[in-house]
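Usage

Read records sequentially. Each one opens with the input sequence:
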Amino acid sequence: MPRMVVGLGNPGPRYENTRHNAGFMAVDLLGVSLRESYWKDESVAKVSVVRLDGDDVVLVKPQTYMNLSGAAVSKLARAYAVEPADIIIVHDDLDIPEETLRVKRGGGHGGHNGLRSLTEALGTGDYLRVRIGIGRPPGRQDAAEFVLEPMRAHTAEKLAELVSHAAQAVLHVLERGVDSAMREYNAG
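and closes with the structure output:
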């Protein structure tokens, strides 16, 4: 049974070192640990198919802007015959404190435009999520500016550590299921 892991982010070098690309970063790390050999361009996305315990896992990094990522994911889910319940979305989340990770099954978009696009394109919010907490912007800083600004070295280091945990959480979901991952990663 094929499964899909989608990292949300924005394409291009301008966004590489931003909080909004935490999903891309996690899927890149997951790809390394699953020995992905190459990324191909397919359906306006970077795609790599790897094997885990005899099953295909389709790694996806949509190359549209995040708020339009649903169309690419929906098209790829149909092409690889992956049901929404077998899709894991990895994304940044303003509503979770910085340096916190949460694994979740289903739910609403919570104002996250990438999730809104996915839910509309898939026709359901019944997909799994690995949520990387980036916290709220300081003071009166605009949320869009906060997630898209380049990070300072210290912030990037802290996020890199959390992104590594997110990649491990995805692997945990793939190997042992979402309930086990929620017990392991949602504690504390």
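Summary fields computed downstream for this record:
- Residues 153-176 form the longest helix (24 residues).
- The beta strands are 3-7, 40-41, 45-52, 55-62, 87-93, 101-105, 128-133.
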